[in-house]
Structures are given as C-alpha cells and as structure tokens.
Amino acid sequence: MGKRLKGWLIRLLAVAAAGALLWYLLPPLLAPISGTLAQAAAVCTGLSFLSPAAQQMVEQINDTENQEAAQPVEPAASQPEETESPSQDAVRPAQDTAQALAAIADPADPTAQPAENTAAVVQQTYREGSSSQYLALDSGWVRNLSGLGTEEILSLSRQELPFDIELNSDQPQVLIYHTHATESYLPTLRGWYGLNESFRSDQNEENMVAVGEVLTQTLEQAGIKVIHDTTQHDNPSYTGAYDRSRETMRKYLEQYPSIKVTLDVHRDAITRDDNTVIAPTATVEGQQVAQVMIISCADGDRIPNFRQNFTFAAGLQQQAAQLYPDLMRPILFDQNRFYNQDLTTGSLLLEFGSHGNTLAQAKRSAVLVGNSLVALWTGEG
Questions:
Q1: Region Disordered: start and end of each range (predicted)?
Q2: Comparing C-alpha atoms, which of 351, 311, 347, 345 is closest to residue 327?
Q3: Nearest-5° Cα angle at 220, 215 to 225
Q4: Could you report the per-residue pLDDT of 293-342, keeping only the tens digit for each?
Q5: How many CB atoms lie within 10 A of CB 234?
Q6: 352: Cβ–Cβ under 8 A, 6 or more apart, which residues?
Q7: CB 100 within 8 A of CB 94
C-alpha cells in the first residue's frame, strides 16, 4: 500500500507541474490571436475594447483603406437632406436673374405681315431728355413737372425711406393692384401691328394681371408678403376705374394696416403722329425687357404725403439704375396727376413698357423691378 500511494503522489505532482508550466506558457502563445480578436471586436463596437494607442492605429488603418478603395462613381439618387428651417429674419434668395429672364419666352414670331391696315413698331431705349425738365439723380433721372426746385428734389431723393418693410412677416407689407387691368401687349415680338388691334384683354393670363403676378412672386420669394388684387377695375367700363380701384385700396388698407406700399401696375401707350408705336426696350442679361416708368404724383393739395412718395420713387429708380442700367425710364414727377397716391407714403404707379412691347418683355421687367425693390428694402443692393 505504501508503494502504490507513493506512485499516485508522484503522478499527481507531475500533472500539477505540467499544468503550472502550461499556465505559464499559454498567455504569450495566445496573445496574437486574442489581440486580433480584440481588435476585430473593437472595430465592430466602436473601438471600446482597445487602448487609446490601439484605437488610433486602427483608425489610421481604416482611413487608409477607405482612401485606397475610393473610386469615381456615378452619383446615386438620394433623398434630400433635412435642413434647419430659416430664421425669421433670413431672406430667401430669389432664383438666378439670368435664368428667370430666359425662362420667360416670347411666342413664335409670325413671318407674314398683313399688306394693309398696319403701322410700324419701333423699339427705343429712353434715357434722359434734352430739355431743362430732366434732372439727374445720383443714379437715373427724373422728369420734373412737380413745381419743386432742383435742390429740394435732390434732397428728397437722398432721404431714408418713410417706411420699413418687415421680412418674413405673416402680415402683408405690399398691395399690388391694377386700375387698368385689361391693358395688354402685342401678341408676338414683331415690327408691326394692326391698326385695328385693341390691346385689351379680359384674360388675366394676357393682361396686366400676369405682370403683377410675376412681380408678386419675385417679392414673395424674398420673404415679402404681398396681396395681389386681380380685380379688373376697367371692365366693363373704363370710365371711373380710378374711383373703383380707390375703394379696393381702402378695403385692403383698413383690413391690413401692415401694408406700407401700394403699386398700381399698368402699361404705357406711346404712338407717334404717323401711327408708329414705340416699344421702350432695354437689354438685360442678354434678354429684351420692357423699360419701366415710375409715375409719382405731386398734387400737394390732394396728396399731402407726396414728398414721401417721391422719396420712395427716387429710391427705387436709383436702385434699379445701379443694378440694371437702362431698365428705367426717367421718373415722371407731375403736379397735375393724382392716381390715389394719398393713401400711403409708399404709393406709386408703374408703367411696364407700352402696347408695342410683348407680355414676355414686361414679365421680365417685373422680375427686375422685384429684385430692385428687395435690394432697396433690405439694403443688399
């Protein structure tokens, strides 16, 4: 029994010694494997199992692999990324001017000209006149029929606007309307017109309402809230149109005291003694546009605020002249006109071209006038 017990003890000691030796040698043998496993686990779990030095090494390896694997590929369609809403004071940028103008196309020009009952249409760019009535502002011109002297007019043209336009307001700031909504243009771009053409349309997509809509959209794209009234105050009767448009103005001004500016959008009619029609035209961004004339009334008896209105007119004239030379004809500043300009300090009448222009030319001008107003009101011109 003694010898057998001794044999078992010797075997037990041998197993224990082998186990101790294995316990000592196993960690170094398994370190590379465990390190690789740990590294893989760290990559999958955000490197949380590695030391800072090991994490940095793995990140560098991953970056190198990504750079080597990057190859030019066709861009895949993707969903638009969510963006933060603009701040209340941010001005939404209008679309590129050249793109906006080019998108407004004239209808095809007919090749045949009627043999009888026609007269010529001549395109002309109006600048300053040669008489003493024309006064140069800092930019642009004014035809002075107001009775005011040169020094006062220049002083008024340099004053601050008599109102502030609130951007991104939920309350309307501008009223656009049409005393003579049915005024219209040549149907196509051409050098003649029929003597029997009426240049009137009760279809709003063909008359001044269409021009006012482009002006409205341009202002609203910049965060200026507009009411565009499309009432045809001259239909069915031309007589009394200004009385009817005055009632429309009053209605909106009473309902929305926030309105600072009222713009009566028209087109002019320029005909020589020989029936030749003049189309006041300029070129902007490679596109033909109808020249625009501001009428600012100076009847001091009926319009006590006419000086403030003129300051606004001069501001718009000068801003537009800086941005788009030749867009504007000289301001008509006339003491013998009224046009309901007594109701605000920002009331003007705008003439977009004449009946010799096309609707497309007038629409392009509406984009430019809108841009000029935005620049004037935001100080970003």
A1: 64-96
A2: 351
A3: 110
A4: 999 999 999 999 999 999 999 999 999 999 999 999 999 999 999 999 99
A5: 23
A6: 208, 211, 265, 266, 267, 290, 292, 362, 365, 366, 369
A7: yes
